């Protein structure tokens, strides 16, 4: 694997270079006017499928704003990712509406808002991080079961899966 330093609005790869592209936790860090370009670049370099995952909508943004206020109240530095989340409104699946002619677009929610907020507050404390890491290593099935049970509306995150339509294939 070779690391590549690039901007998401101008990827240094040829058209259809990859069978699949994953754009996870990126769009919310991109200014709104550049998000369509990031999406088009990901679609340009993929042959088969692209998966986009991102915190979505005003409700998710408000939960992160509450989280930022919690960091401030507890006099802890906000993580860089959270500082960046506060710079722009969160994207929504509406960014993908115009793709339906050439692409098959599927979207679904992930990560309940309250569960996300609870976990993010727990991550502020080092002991919780050790306990959670231990649980993941020792009891992955139980952790997965608990997270799946908590995965319901209202959602913090949207996952959008974009596939080439068969007629669009070469």
Tally of discrete structural domains: 1
Category by helix and strand content: alpha+beta
- Major sheet strand order: 1-2-4-3
Q: Specify the overall morphology.
A: globular
Topology summary:
Layout: E1 18-24, H1 35-45, E2 46-55, H2 57-73, H3 80-85, E3 103-112, H4 113-122, H5 126-138, H6 140-149, E4 155-164
Parallel strand pairs: 1-2
Antiparallel strand pairs: 2-4, 3-4
Helix pairs in contact: 2-4, 5-6
In short:
Helices cover 39% and strands 22% of the residues.
Jot down its keywords.
170 residues; alpha+beta; 4-stranded mixed beta sheet; 6 helices; 4 strands; globular
Give an overview of the whole structure.
It is built from six helices and four strands. It is α+β, with helices and mostly antiparallel strands. The chain has one domain (18-168). It is globular and about 45 Å long. The mean pLDDT is 94.
């Amino acid at each position: 694997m070779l690391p590549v330093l690039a901007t998401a609005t101008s990827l240094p790869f040829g058209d259809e270079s990859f069978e699949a592209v994953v754009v996870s936790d990126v769009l919310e860090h991109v200014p709104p006017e550049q998000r369509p370009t990031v999406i088009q670049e990901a679609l340009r370099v993929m042959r088969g499928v692209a998966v986009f995952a991102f915190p979505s909508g005003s409700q998710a943004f408000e939960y992160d704003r509450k989280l930022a206020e919690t960091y401030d109240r507890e006099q802890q530095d906000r993580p860089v990712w959270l500082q960046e989340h506060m710079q722009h409104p969160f994207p929504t699946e509406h960014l993908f509406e115009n793709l339906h002619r050439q692409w098959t677009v599927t979207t679904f929610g992930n990560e309940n808002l309250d569960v996300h907020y609870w976990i993010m507050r727990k991550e502020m404390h080092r002991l919780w991080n050790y306990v959670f890491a231990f649980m993941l290593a020792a009891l992955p099935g139980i952790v997965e079961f608990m997270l799946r049970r908590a995965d319901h509306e209202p959602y913090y995150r949207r996952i959008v899966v974009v596939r080439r339509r068969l007629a669009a294939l070469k």
